[in-house]
Every structure is written in structure tokens, then in C-alpha cells.
Amino acid sequence: xxxxxEKAFDAVxxxxxxxxxxxxxxxxxTFEELKAYIKTQLDQNNAKLVGQE
Length: 53
Prior knowledge:
Blueprint: H1 11-26, H2 31-44
């Protein structure tokens, strides 16, 4: 018999929520605006693009 456990953290649900939020924020942006948005988000989170040091 199979029982389901409640998950404390659901990565798939979190990924969908983040994706949907970003899609709403960027849906009407031009390519230049999108590049600026990405740069701003990276700077705010002190993150770098993959492959950059």
C-alpha cells in the first residue's frame, strides 16, 4: 500500500512560482529592457552568469 508524505519543500512548485513571477514581470519588455532586467537582478543578488568568474 502506498502512502504519500507531506513535503516540507517542493522544488518543482517553487520553480514554477519563480518562473511565473519572472514571466509576468518581463512579458512586455523589449530585448534591451530584458537585458537590463537580468543585469539588475544579477547585481542585486550578487550573482554571475554561468561561466563567468
